[in-house]
Batch of 4 targets.
Target 1
Amino acid sequence: MAAVREDLPRGRYGRSADERADRTLRVVGAVLAVALSAMVGWFGYDYIAGQKISAEVIKFDVTTDSEVQVHLEVRKDREATGTCTVRSLAEDGGEVGRLDVRIDGRDVERIDQVVKVRTTQRATSAGLVGCTAR
């Protein structure tokens, strides 16, 4: 006599352990993907929209052993005010001068400004440290 095997009806006795684990992993993965996407979106928005003042050094000129002239181009929101920090470096890379430049210019989005940075010795370069809005 041959053994007869009966298949159980599908879905009648609930999900198997593997199916439950697969579903749990899918739910956790979806939640993490949504959270990561939201976080990347927030950081991107904050980086772009949060910068009210940005600047760059167009050129610099070492005029004497104790002074550097720096040409700054500042871009900002119309109502934004703040400070940009410029520094000068010596040949060995040490900082020899630093200046905080006030940015006011209400109702203006772009400012070209030449500033003089006093130095303690001859500078070989000048650069922008950064800008902060008030």
Target 2
Amino acid sequence: MPREKVVRIWDEREVVYSRERWATLRAKREKALVIMERLGEFDPHVYGSVARGDVRRDSDVDIFVPYRVPAYLVELALEGLVRRRKIVMATPWHLIKGVIEVDEETTVTFPLVNPTDRELEFYRWGGALDMEGLKRRERVPGVNKKLILIIPTERGHIEREVVGREPEVARILGVSVDIVMERVHVLTRRDRIGRTGIYVDEEVPDWMAFEEALKVIADRDPNVRRKVREAGGI
């Protein structure tokens, strides 16, 4: 699927959901909850459109664990659901993450090194909701890939442009202005020059532990090795 481009809206607008859209949201949240209940001891969060509510039929179900835990514990909790395992690092400066693909639309992500507060802000930027909030049918504000702030309402959501409202957006999301400015820069730059790819995106063999695979990558890549060292090791 092509990446969604940044759009401009000159004022806020309200989107009212159809019955079909509410049903799609309910189905994706039920799917997320089944997986999150397995991961309950690790404080799992769902993030993105499933947390905000602005889902489409092709929206992903993205779940993350917000702190470093031994990868085998995550795998044990998801026993029978693991389809594919990867190590991902967006750029040489970003968090190193383990990714477990459950199916074509569902992933569980967890840090392989200790995350910084700034790296965790990324999830609040897109909208993140814990398991109890999901059970209470809460929805949270967040920014989509088009750089539009989504604010949930009883009928659907309100959309506001992020560019030019950075301090307001930071306040609503409870994140720093710095992370807002960074994401605006990254997403608008991608529109100008195109996506440059992910720095590390490697499948982990079935017979190898995540931590062992990360050590192999770190041994050959100085940027990964530096990040591991700065984050306190594997």
Target 3
Amino acid sequence: MVTTLYKWFSLALLGVFLTGAARPHPLYISVTELKHNPKDKILEVSCKMFTNDLETALEKMAKTHVDLSAAKDKAASDKLIEEYVERHLRLRLDGKPAVLHFVGSEKENDGTWSYFQVNDVPAVKRIDVVNDLLYDSFNQQIGIVHVTVGGQRKSTRLDYPDANASFEF
């Protein structure tokens, strides 16, 4: 199922890339990757969303126009992305709330990646995720969550309005 969604997501990205236009796409999807890095004792968090969908959500939150392509507004855009993701992605590691620390963001074709980390995570056995990224803007939203701990990767699909997932390692 995840492979099929990835193919649809890739085709949607390709369509926008080839036409050069941000047009409606067949899926409203975000991808969140959580990867435990035991050497550095951090949980690396990456979120990818269609840029135009993210702009819609950020505009709704900030009540102002948002253009993630404007280089001069990068610092302001990053602040909005940080605030938005922290509101809509919540993690518990072994039952304890995790604090996301913003690392940065970057555009890639018609998607935007945002990067966070959770510090001081020497080991983790259970990760609980509440992921409602873009749910406030699109009731067709799908969230794909990939979690890698100890070299073992687990994934799930969250369909609006379902936002909760748990992973045990």
Target 4
Amino acid sequence: MTDRPLTYLRLDPIGVPVYSARGLTEDFSLDGDAQLARTVNNVLIDLGAGEDEKYKLTITCSDQQMPALDGVIRGMELTVDCATEFNYMTVGGSPSRPVASTTDDPATRTEGALTFYRPRLTMMVADYRLTHDEAGDVYGWSLDLIEV
């Protein structure tokens, strides 16, 4: 048996109480300026400005409690230490985002030719939803975030 925490997720400054994020799902998508189009020769090209891609992230969970979402508003900035691991080639590679290094849990590990790390993202709240199943005493929540 390992001493794995209940969750690796950290949300600063709002916090993640015990029993509020077990079994969570993090769903990442790109939020960049890509403008994909086909040329007259049917070659796919990107007409975007070529700026770095940013992430959209939706965190979803059902548990016995909720994170401290009271007072959270659209546009609020959060620092998110993700539970999801990103990875890169150990030789010649480096993380594309800062590493979630201030947690008590190891945020990096190496396996074969890959280094895995949990990223720390500066994100802005786009929306959130709360649900409560009274009979089952289950609180559900989801948080939609966009990388700054």
